[in-house]
Amino acid sequence: MMNELATHLSPDEPLVVGLMGDPDTAVDVERAGGIQQSLDKAGRGRILQNVSAFLTYAEGQSKTEVLLRRYPQMNAIWAANDSMAMGALKVVRAANATVCIGGAGSWPDALESIAAVGLHATAEGHSLIGVVALLEVFDHRNGIDFVERSGNARRRLDYLNLVTRATLDAPAPVPAGRSTELGGCHAASMPRSTRPGAWTPLLLS
Q1: How far apart are the C-alpha atoms of 83 and 64, rounded to whole Å?
Q2: Which CATH superfamily is domain 2-124 in?
Q3: Single pTM value for the model
Q4: Domain extent listing, the chain
Q5: Cis peptide before 11 (omega within 30 of 0)
Q6: For the segment 112-151, what is each residue's pLDDT rounded down to a tens digit?
Q7: Is the dihedral of CA 17, 93, 118, 106 positive or negative?
């Protein structure tokens, strides 16, 4: 995500604000670390501030109002979910500020916003990770131990993809090298839709 925002901002230096979740959770620590790692790898840009927040539209609004006054030079917002990203977008537009915003979740309103050149990007694939987890539970109930199969009790499921205006109409890809066949079930890729309620369900056969 941060690579995409930085590329869009080029040649300007990314001046980033992160709208995070609970700072005490491992995933939030990883989010913050990922932003910094991306900037370090690019050799340009800096984090002005990462703030913790409830993952809501209202929190996205209220935090961004304060942060925009504090850092009028900021040009990128990385939000932990699309709800906060949409709240941030409302504030940025009201202030007539030029800020590139990315979220996560690939929610229908976020996809509509990307199509309308509002949000710049969102990360998708969370639902597929959930489906894979349910299939693992199903397998375990039917005597197939995922620990024995994978050799590890902990699994990092990397099914996240980035959605931008350029990729909006493309089917959501299954990452190369990642098996989607678990316990005899096959998970098909899900086409995206910018129309609320028009999601094609995950096919299991």
Answers
A1: 13
A2: Response regulator (3.40.50.2300)
A3: 0.74
A4: 2-124, 126-186
A5: yes
A6: 999 999 999 998 866 666 777 788 788 888 888 877 776 7
A7: positive
